[in-house]
Amino acid sequence: MADERDLEIDDLINNLDKEYYSAHPTANSSYLATHKSRDLKSLVRLWISERTCPDILPYAHDLLDTMLDRVREQVEVIEVNTTSGDAGGSAKLKLLFVETEIERVKFLVRGYLRARILKIDKYYMHILNNLDMQTRLSQSELRYTKRRGNQLKRYYDLRFLSSLPPSLQRLDDTAGGLQMVDAPGLDEVVFVRVLQDVPGEVDLGNDDKIELRKGNIYVLPYKVIRRYVDNGDVQLV
Amino acid sequence: MALPPKQVGTFIPSEISFLAENSLVTIIPRQAMESIELIGGTIPSMRPMRRIEVPIWVAVLLKKQSRCNIVPPDWLSEENLKVTYDAEAANMTRFSANLPWEWVEVGELILGSAPDDLSSPPHVIRNLLRDIREVRQAKARAGLKNLNDSYLQLDNVGAMELNEIRSFVTMAMNQLRIMQGTREGPEQQDVDVEPDDQDDDDDDDDLPRESYDDSMRTAKGYQDSYGTARNSSRLGSEFAGTEDERASINSHSFTKSTLNRSRSALPQAPSYSDDNDDGEDEDNDMEMDETYLNAVNGN
Predict the structure, then answer these.
(1) Secondary structure (DSSP) of A12-47
(2) Would the CB atoms of B41 and A37 count as touching at under 8 Å?
(3) Cross-chain residue pair B41–A117, CB shorter than 8 Å
(4) Residues in B touching A210 (Cβ below 8 Å)
């Protein structure tokens, strides 16, 4: 008797579940399984990579545009929901999540751009002399770099360069085997984590060879690991 | 506005923690709530007692409002932490693989926000986490002795732990590379090495190189020391070379004169500053440990 009743209850619950999930097809989809979360993950990776990579990485136009569009959409959601006067407890809570997440995304975007500006400021002269570098910048970054270059040049001229002999006035002198222009140090070491096994060994130059196996964490010069970072076998951490 | 200096080339602990907040955790909602569309995904609709996975930052917010209980991950149970601690203590040359990448941060987040959801008293868990952390920090520091100019392997290190040694390791390795003269291009800079050290080992047989004058001989001394160290550079395999070789690393590789001449010396590495003989190694290690710990703890 008791068993029968238990069975009935179980059936009822199961049926309820079925009804519920057919009415809400997304209800059971985990947070992970969406393309949205993939985009957010890419943004996080982008931020980490830009912060840890000695070189300037190509600007991620599409991803940034998508994310900023979504931020705007979410801001609209907030505006609509706060003006509609429907401010019950659960609506407020919902807005709290939306707002918190907007701030989190904006933090990532800001961090990404600031990390880039840091490197752009440092290597502006190299960028201005190098077309490949210029293609990695966004329009506004390139504009900024050019203006900064011009302004600094004018300023130095005005303050002291004009009073030096003409042979010493250059800002990109290479005399004496010394470069005045700073370029990103591709030889600097980076921390990487291997995402998937790479067949064969990686030659590090000086007689060292290492294997890249999933889960390995290495500290290596960026230049030897660069192509594996680019094709996604390893990630900067 | 570019990045503030303290965030250049590394992350600050709060940033590492921010990243960990994106990882998922299982919660048991106490109330029903509609699903919420977010930029990075959808928080599924909640029904009381039905477990769902959400990012930790969502879980922490819900927990703050007593709207859910957090289910601590398996590795965070007292039992598993004890196993992990034993595994860590049993092998002082390797990090165990029992902990996830973000274990420090996730542990702190859950202890901080949901101490009542843990299966054991919070202070027990906290102490175990601290013990594990200390054991692992000791390994990380011991492993720093193996630093060389080529590579370093740190399997199973955590995100926070990695970030703590990041500045030091990066600076030291870049510096060693300069000393090795392997830097190419415009940044190349000759490093003058004082020919003041005569006790470099003359074990050159395996290094086919042309003859050097006196000052280069010392430079070759580096090569030998690091060549040896390099062979055992897997963090946690045997530590570099013999006592003699270690002494020679300590005594000439980080002399002040060398550092001052080369670019971007190691300003935050006090232990490696002056000449020191064997007897002082211990003291210096201690000093280094303290500074390291302070840096780590953000003091």
Answers:
(1) HHHHHHHHHHHH-TTTTS-GGGSHHHHHHHHHHHHH
(2) yes
(3) no
(4) 151, 153
Q: Determine the residue of chain B that is closest to A41 in CA distance.
A: B40
CATH of span B10-144: 3.40.5.50
For chain A, what are the domain ranges? 37-182, 186-237
Collect all residues of chain A within an 8 Å Cβ-Cβ radius of residue B53: 30-32
* pLDDT above 80 for A23: no
pLDDT tens for residues A53-69?
999 999 999 999 999 99
- For residue A225, the distance in angstroms to the closest alpha carbon of chain B comes to 11
- Rounded to an integer, what distance in angstroms lies between the CA atom of residue B209 and that of residue B6? 42
Do B33 and A204 lie within an 8 Å CB cutoff? no
Whether residues B2 and A121 touch (CB distance < 8 A) is answered with yes
Q: Do A187 and B182 touch (CB under 8 A)?
A: yes
Q: What is the pLDDT of residue B287?
A: 44
CATH topology of domain A37-182: Methane Monooxygenase Hydroxylase; Chain G, domain 1 (1.20.58)
pLDDT at residue B197 greater than cutoff 70: no
Please answer whether residues B266 and B172 qualify as being in contact, where contact means their C-beta atoms are separated by less than 8 angstroms. yes
Q: B52-55 and B24-29: which strand pairing?
A: antiparallel
Reported confidence tier of residue B65, pLDDT bands at 50, 70, 90: very high
Provide the token pair at B95.
């990090």
Contact assignment for A44 to B33 by CB distance below 8 Å: no
Nearest CA of chain A to the CA of B74: how many Å? 19
Could you tell me which residue, B277 or B128, shows the higher pLDDT?
A: B128
Query: Predicted confidence band at A9 (pLDDT cuts at 50, 70, 90)?
Result: low
Between the CA atoms of A141, A143, A146 and A150, what dihedral angle is there, to the nearest 10 degrees?
-130
A166-to-A13, A38, A157, A169, A171 alpha-carbon distances in Å: 88, 55, 11, 5, 11
Which whole-number Å values give the CA distances from B185 to A54, A180, B223, in the listed order?
15, 12, 21
What percentage of chain B reaches a pLDDT higher than 70? 60
Residue A218 to residue B24, Cβ atoms within 8 A: no
Instruction: With CB atoms and an 8 Å threshold, state whether B154 touches A39.
Output: no
∠ CA A217-A222-A228, nearest 5°, is: 65
Q: Which tokens sit at B244?
A: 């003699």
Q: Which two tokens stand for residue B270?
A: 């006090």
> What value does the mean pLDDT of chain B take?
72
Q: How far apart are CA B68 and CA B173, in angstroms?
A: 47
- Which residue does chain B place closest to A215, by CA atoms? B155
Mutation site for B-interface testing, chosen from A32, A102, A206, A216 by largest number of B Cβ within 10 Å: A206
Q: Reply yes or no on whether the pLDDT at B233 is more than 60.
A: no
The domain locations on chain B are 10-144, 159-297
DSSP designation for A205:
S
What would be the CATH architecture of the domain defined by A186-237? 3-Layer(aba) Sandwich (3.40)
- For B42, the closest of A26, A179, A188 (CB atoms) is A26
